[in-house]
Amino acid sequence: MKEKVVLAYSGGLDTTAIIPWLKENFDYEVICVCIDCGQGEELDGLEERAKFCGAEKLYILDVTDEFCDEYIVPCVQAHAVYENKYLLGTSMARPLIAKKLVEIARKENASAISGISAMKDWNWKILQMNPTLSISWYLEPRLKRLLMRVNMLP
After folding, report:
1. 139: number of Cβ within 10 Å
2. Strand, helix or coil for residue 101
3. What's the rounded mean pLDDT across residues 57-62?
4. pTM for the full model?
5. Is a pLDDT exceeding 50 seen at residue 61?
6. I need a labelling partner for 27 at 20 to 30 A (CA). Which of 7, 55, 61, 66 fits?
7. 102-137 burial by CB neighbour count: b if 16+ within 10 A, else e?
8. What pLDDT, on a 0 to 100 scale, did the predictor assign at position 144?
9. What pLDDT, on a 0 to 100 scale, did the predictor assign at position 65?
10. What is d(CA 86, CA 104) in angstroms, rounded to the nearest whole number?
């Protein structure tokens, strides 16, 4: 049985192109996870795209209410702004995305979590939410793809 990787999937070029790369280079079964924080129509066609490129399945998790109630509202109440100009939009979602990726990784018994963008900050978020995970990083220099190895500890 192949090891599984959970891929933080947006449906963009990078996360779509990494699906066959993960399969070819690591022989993983790829499970895509899209965290819907209110993207709306951007999610149209994701499942077809992911499966066409070799993903075994795609989870689309609607976390809009949780994101608003537990992340946006506290940030607004705390006046969390960047350079006194705008709210910390993208960074507000990262802890919730990390949390959901770990939940799916556990559900699927995956041995790794993979992503493209600002994953460098996610290791502490994932460990903070679940200290039973052991995380190590792999960087494939030519493709600049980041792979986070998650070892499930008893």
Report:
1. 10
2. helix
3. 96
4. 0.75
5. yes
6. 61
7. bbbbeebebbbbbbbeebeebbebbeeebeebeeee
8. 41
9. 94
10. 32
Share of the chain above pLDDT 70, in %: 73
Q: φ and ψ at 144, to 5 degrees?
A: 50, 45
Quote the distance between the C-alpha of residue 34 and its chain's center. Answer: 7
> What residue type is 141 in one-letter code?
P
How far the first Cα of the chain sits from its last, in Å, is: 21
Pick the closest to residue 108 from 42, 50, 56, 39 (CA basis).
56
Dist. CA 22–CA 145, nearest whole Å = 10
Q: What SS3 class is residue 149?
A: strand
Question: Is 96:63 a contact under the CB 8 Å cutoff?
Answer: yes
Q: Which amino acid is at 32?
A: C
In total, the chain counts a number of residues equal to: 154
